[in-house]
Amino acid sequence: MEIMLFHSMYGLRPAVHAAAERLRAAGHQVHVPDLYEGQTAGTAEEGLAIRDRIGWDELVRRAVRAAALHSERGLVYAGLSLGAAFAQILATGDEKARGLLLLHGTYDVGEGPSLDGLPVRLHLADPDVYEPDDWLNSWYLAMERAGADVEVHRYRGAGHLYTDPDLPDHDEEAAEATWAAVLAYLEEL
């Protein structure tokens, strides 16, 4: 499987490379574009400041450019937190998308995408301060109406970005359960 993995608001940090290596070790080809062009953050506030300095529209353009190099072959779009937004934007606009893997985040579904059975897997903390239940319910219903095959996995007590071992949110048990489910999902595709 060919996967386009987008980093979180912290930038292209070691945890993103480790995630890509884990997927590669399972036989997948993984691309990890650096939307922040070398900048990384040590805190959420620093990450949001980098995001805001670059600007949303420019980040989306960078994500589109990165995916355009590989999208003809049918990608699985994946993203961590903020990166999940870029993965979802690109997957919902790419009729050749083979799957959508969202870790720690979602994005507004908007009006009218037709996702014709697109396999979507969402993994996130329960609760998650960035993904409140009312938002998730609306997101889920909108994805279902668009025709996606959605499965949501919640991890009780984990912090928002629980798969990143370098952050205080890290939860090893939840992270390992997530990666096992992710590998099973990719195997099904």
Describe the structure.
With 189 residues, this protein is of the alpha/beta class. The protein has one domain: Rossmann fold. Helix content is 41%, strand content 18%. The chain contains six helices and six strands. The protein has a six-stranded parallel sheet with strand order 2-1-3-4-5-6, sandwiched between helices. The longest helix has 17 residues, at 172-188.
Summarize the structure.
41% of the residues lie in helices and 18% in strands. It is an alpha/beta fold.
CATH class: Alpha Beta
> Radius of gyration in whole Å, from Cα?
15 Å
Q: β content, as a range?
A: 15-25%
N-to-C series of helices and strands: EHEHHEHEEHEH
Instruction: Tell me about the largest β-sheet.
Output: 6 strands, parallel
Tell me the layout of helices and strands.
Layout: E1 2-6, H1 14-25, E2 29-31, H2 44-54, H3 56-68, E3 76-80, H4 82-92, E4 99-103, E5 119-126, H5 133-145, E6 149-156, H6 172-188
Structure keywords:
189 residues, alpha/beta, Rossmann fold
